[in-house]
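We read letters as residues; the integers encode the fold. Take this protein.
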Amino acid sequence: MAPDTANATEPGATGEHAPAKVNLALHVTGRRADGYHLLDTLVVFTETGDRIRAADAGSDGFAVTGPFAADIPADGANLVLRARDLLRGVAGASARPVRIELDKALPAASGIGGGSSDAAATLRALARLWGLSLSAGDLATIALPLGADLPMCLAAHTLRARGVGEALAPVDGLPGLDMVLVNPGVAVATPAVFTALANRANPPLAPLPARPDFSILVEWLAAARNDLEAPAVSIAPAIASCLAALRQSGAALARMSGSGATCFGLYPSRQDAARAAAAIAAGQPSWYVRATRTI
């Protein structure tokens, strides 16, 4: 992913976009002996996201701003700081003190990879700021202890992820997708969703059609699932309300992303998505509602 130069305006500073990660389909295909679930998921990333800015400083610092700043820990529990410390352990003397600013525009614990994407953006930004010669594969290996979503968020392009999320295959030829993200303001704990999952041995995704247009892709997605949607709805019924609102707004497909509670709807055009977002936001002013597009 290219650096977010609009977010870095001085020497010794750099910025990164931390895009939302959307699971267009997510099948749970098994469970390892260590308890980790095996997945097969088609993932896209969006123009909507958080932002990371890192700058040289006399001592380490961290600040969180943005509409969801109050929901984010600003201490060592934050994945941004864990990513900084993990990379510093690899970088050694190259790791100068740094001030990191996180503009938190995505809801927390919402199934769209916000924390993981923030950590991935931090790793990309600091590797550049500290002049580290690390390949994408090197960074993914370093990042994996932070969570199974980290390798895919480091890649930040359309991909298919298998295993526990570490086995990645790029996907080319998908059309750009206009969508609306909706979150009812309910945080859903991922472990609780997996505990409520009835079947942990489902078939994998079917082969993707070659270079599908919008209608063919929607048809393929309609035959797929998010296996975590039903257990998440049983825990947070507001998710069902989000899905209903998206369908009523004219979405060609509405589905939950990840372990929830964020849902997405797909629309034929940017204008259709914008109209749908406006209608949903007018009806539910307390919800998080954003029209966006895949990158």
Remarks:
- The chain has two domains: 5-170, 178-293.
- The domain at 178-293 is CATH 3.30.70.890 (Alpha-Beta Plaits).
